[in-house]
Amino acid sequence: MNAWWTLGSFLLFTAAVAVITWCKTRREDVKSETGFFLAGRSLTWPVIAGSLLLTNLSTEQLVGLNGDAFSAGLSVMVWEVMAVLALLGMALFFLPRFLKSGIATVPQMLEIRFDRTTKLICNLIFLAAYATILLPIILYTGAQGLLGILDVRSLTGIESQTALVWLMVWVVGLIGSAYALFGGLRSVAVSDLLNGLGLLIGGFMITYFGFRLLGDGQGAVHGYDVFRTEMADRLNSIGGPDAPVPFWEIFTGVTVINFFYWCTNQQIIQRTLAARNLKEGQKGVLCCAFLKLLGPLYLVLPGMMAYYYFVVLGKSPELRSVEAYGTLVRTVLPPWLAGFFCAVMVGAILSSFNSALNSTCTLFSLDLYKGCLRRKATELEVVRSGKYFGVCFAIISMCVAPLLIGKDSIFTYLQTMNGIYFIPIFSVVLMGLLNRRVPAAAAKTALIGGCVFIALCYFVLPKWDIDLCAKWGGNYHYLGIVFVLLLALMQIWSMVAPRREVWEQQPSGDVDLTPWRFVWPVAIVIFIMIVAIYWCCGDFSVLCPAQQ
Fold first, then answer.
1. Could you write out the DSSP letters of every residue in 457-523?
2. Residue 527, domain member (yes or no)
3. What angle do CA 248, 435, 105 make, to 5 degrees?
4. What is the pLDDT of residues 424-434, one digit of tens each?
5. How far is CA 253 from the centre of its chain?
6. Whole-structure pTM value
7. How far apart are CA 161 and CA 224, in angstroms?
8. Domain count, the chain
9. Is residue 521 situated within a structural domain?
10. Which domain holds residue 202?
11. 210: Cβ–Cβ under 8 A, 6 or more apart, which residues?
């Protein structure tokens, strides 16, 4: 009976999001390029903030980050806090320049700055990464997360775990494809906003009920006091040498990865490129930055609660980190609320999937189909090509995702693979905007050479790569060093064989570029909050173990 209560509340919330999204977007233009791919450049700051937040949040964060917190404690909150710093960079530096050029994709920015071949190389890198890494992992981790909360086995009578994974992958994939391929970016953004509100409510609800569980009948406040006392050694924002992210690695590869993700990753930034004007875009990005500061409350603390309740108290001492979050949710929530939270998780999964799929369609239609295959194609033909390509891409992803069954660490696999293209693309975009003398040849060399070099170190020379990581202090230091080397390569190239004419960025006139008058004061306040969080929650003595 409980399983049916869970299923009922899940279907009710999911259906409500779908109906509201349809009502809000049914009169939207989805036949033109701007309407389908950029929501008619009409997004306001609440929609941008909600869509940014939920596109980022999926089972990799809900399950993966809480799993890391289960194993290592508060220091893994670095991924959330450093994301805030990257969002400040987006609002203050990258977004004004992107909107000035009126781009719909990051490769288009590279075409404007360098040439068409540079755009094509970047486009192919994005498509290959999304097809083999991003979309399959979103579907697979989403299926596993849902199987952990919904009792799908008893509801369907299917005993095979493999069959259940295939079923959930295709359910999530088909629903997400419907949003992305038939409603365009506007429907994706509106559904993201609704699911984002649900996710915040549900995430904080898990934290509240978790403290109540630790309070053992004496309330959430007492539970918090118990948690703070008993877990004092793990409530440290500073990662020691053995932490998943040691403190000093924050300033190298971790920072670069976050800046790529929030400033140049097509899947994420496409809703900012659809802003009504620069003011709305900056407000939306900074609002998302503030919400990310709250992320550790529902992406880190629940994992630590699970460790205390199940391991320290001996309720389930053999519990694995990947199972921690789902087990805590099942333990603390009544069935009807579990269904609501499952619907919120589905929303997070769908958001990541349909955003990535919509971005994939955008990259193919505008950069490859119209830019290379059929330059005289009408807007309707361009949109139609994106939908057809999206259908094929979604089917391929739904077939590939279940093949990940048996992987020991999906999160590690994701981070390893992402480094291959994160570092080269971000280095080229950053240097292209900072140095107006860098020629196209340098950018192409950095894109191709960077991807090949990192891939060789990962897969062809793994022993050499591991030795370097050990020598330099960690894998993130290694990625940071590669990033600096690529910047140095392009800088030297610009001095030896510079571009003939200094590049001057020309405004496209698509949107009003008047900045929000409070953008700098708000950004400074948020930056101070970042420093304060680390200062208040940090015990820097872990960096000097000999003195402990």
1. IIIISHHHHHHHHHHHTSHHHHHHHHHHHHHHHHHHHHHHS--SS---PPP--SS--PPPTTHHHHH
2. no
3. 85
4. 999 999 999 99
5. 16
6. 0.82
7. 37
8. 1
9. no
10. 2-501
11. 223, 301, 302, 305, 306, 309, 328, 332
